[in-house]
Design a protein that fits this description.
103 residues; 0% strand; globular
Length: 103
């Protein structure tokens, strides 16, 4: 039985922590790999939302993310890349809305 106030989010956090503890990539590289994987599986904006903060903290720029989308386009196809771009944009909007004071 699921426990805690947010059992799904807690489980996802634990899964990510285990994954991160087993990888020796630089944080920015790891995030670019994860963003490429999210694009490949047609992930929703909520999946990207988990990576917005860490991406900013690692120093990733919008240009870096765009470069990854351009690089993977021939492999995963235009529809996946366009959905990823939209989902990333939506996730950024959600992140900004959450962090804006007074809302």
């Amino acid at each position: 039985m699921a426990t805690g106030e947010a059992p799904v989010l807690e489980a996802l956090t634990e899964i990510n922590a285990v994954s991160l503890s087993r990888v020796e990539l630089e944080p920015a590289t790891l995030l670019l790999v994860r963003l490429a994987a999210l694009a490949a599986v047609n992930a929703p904006a909520a999946s990207y939302l988990l990576h917005v903060g860490p991406a900013a903290e690692s120093g990733l720029r919008l240009d870096d993310i765009q470069d990854v989308l351009v690089a993977i386009a021939p492999i995963i196809g235009t529809p996946h890349v366009l959905r990823a771009a939209g989902a990333i944009t939506e996730a950024l909007g959600i992140a900004l809305a959450i962090t804006e004071p007074g809302d």
